[in-house]
Amino acid sequence: MKKAAVHFPTVPTIAFEGPSSTRSLAFRHYNPDEIIDGKTLSQHLRFSIAYWHSFRGVGADPFGPGTIQRPWETGKDAVSIAKTRMDAAFEFFQKIRAPFWCFHDRDIAPEGATLAESNQNLDAVVAHALALQKSTGVKLLWGTANLFSNPRYMCGAATNPDAHVYAYAAAQVKKAMDVTKELGGENYVFWGGREGYETLLNTNLKREQDHLAAFLHMAVDYARSIGFKGQFLIEPKPKEPTKHQYDFDVASGIAFLRTYGLENYFKFNIETNHATLAGHTFQHEIEVAAAQKMLGSIDANSGDLLLGWDTDQFNTDVKELTLAMVSILNAGGLGRGGFNFDAKLRRPSIDPEDLFHAHIGGMDAYALAFKLARRIRADGKFTNFVTDRYASFDAGFGRDIETGKTNFKALEKLVLSKLGEPTPRSGKQEYLENLLNTYLHG
Ligand code: XUL
Ligand code: CO
Q: Which of 14, 68, 201, 369 has fewest C-beta within 10 Å?
């Protein structure tokens, strides 16, 4: 912790003070060291900080430049600034007590004039990251490549109509996978930033999808060749920046992966606000992935239901998170995934402390949701209700339907000769909503 006090001098390491604490720079629900079922809360939740928002985002929007203070952004050249920035980042990771971080290649190191120069810059900063990981114990949840900011990718990367751009993207991902492996990354993420289209007047949809699949197959082959054991994750998003993105949501992602024989190599990184943009709830996306055993990791944020774009806000909605957490726990957890705060400060939140307030809020909300979800599951009231609702499929002709032992003719005979008209049964939604509130509000 030699450099710990340098970049955030006014903020100490955030302490857990319990639910009655009124201090703003303290955790009320997230006690990283609390042991639950033999594991610390920090091991259960595997929180991660998103480098792109917290250390590269400055609050710029289409109507104005950045506003947020980044006093460490000085140095003799771009690579040394990148290293100082990284010192600030690791100081933050430690003080906020996040065990993991995530990055895009171009977040951490400046792009050079050539690919070779970009790779050199990346190597220099990755060596620095490796040293910081060793000295702090902070680990890499996942790495990824930025295949959307540079103008060369304006028409996509793996779905670009120009094979030259495709080759460049392949080279960039190869290098991003190398450095993710070097840093011990537990996952590797593919968010298809511009893998979609604006108009079919200039687009061969089938060819683009074939190309994307070929790209992902090559990524799988390369990972195998270098012995990278991390989990590959697809992060669906329906739109923005493209009008129509190929990985629209989890369901279309599953269809894509199965169509191209990729389903055994990928799981999903589900982002809350991407679910909203697709017209789904966060919990829905988690359930769809979990149903196919493809739930991988979470990009923890929220959107704004009144705005149609990706606002990437910190999520403090305990109800939404509790429901999501019930589904995640029902699925057996996230395994080597985690909760990555892919979220950014609002443009007027310019003080260095605001980065702490934002993450404290997100971490506390998730920790509280985790505890509430455990209580809900332990009580079993919702599970029992749902089990009972489907009980007619547990035996007799219901069981025959599930096991493929019956057919239309047999079912018709049953209804005509024996069953007659079914008796309607209440879905009891209002009762269940009230029951949920007893956990959230006592
Ligand atoms: C964009 C987004 C990305 C991915 C990583 O909406 O979520 O930052 O998480 O490329
Ligand atoms: Co994301």
A: 201
Omega before residue 32 within 30° of 0, cis: no
**What does the alpha-carbon distance between residue 247 and residue 259 come to, in Å, rounded to a whole number?**
13
Quote the strand ranges of 123-236, DSSP E.
139-144, 187-190, 196-197, 231-234
Q: How close is the Cα of 191 to the center of ligand 1, in Å?
A: 6
CA distance 186 to 172: 19
Quick one: which of 434, 322, 413 has its CA closest to 374? 322
d(CA 297, CA 302): 15
Give per-residue pLDDT as tens, 53-87: 999 999 999 999 999 989 999 999 999 999 999 99
Measured CA to CA, the distance from residue 2 to residue 115 in angstroms comes to 34
Q: Whose CA is nearest to atom 10 of ligand 1?
A: 191
The answer, yes or no, to whether residue 325 has pLDDT greater than 50, is: yes
Question: What single DSSP character describes residue 413?
Answer: H
Instruction: Say whether pLDDT at 3 is over 50.
Output: no
Give the residue, by CA position, lying nearest to ligand 1 atom 3.
191
Reduced to 3 states, what is the DSSP secondary structure of residue 60? coil
User: pLDDT, tens digit, for every residue of 25-41?
Assistant: 999 999 999 999 999 99
Q: Which two tokens stand for residue 238?
A: 């329906």
To the nearest 10°, report the CA torsion of 60, 78, 355, 58.
0
In this structure, the residues whose C-beta lies within 6 A of any atom of ligand 1 are: 52, 104, 144, 189, 191, 235, 237, 271, 299, 310, 342
CB 193 within 8 A of CB 241: yes
Q: Helix H segments across 380-424?
A: 381-389, 396-402, 408-414
- Give the DSSP H/E element, type plus range, for residue 47: strand 47-50
pLDDT tens digits, residue range 182-224?
999 999 999 999 999 999 999 999 999 999 999 999 999 999 9
pLDDT tops 50 at residue 2: no
Name the residues around ion ligand 2, CB cutoff 5 A.
Answer: 271, 299, 342
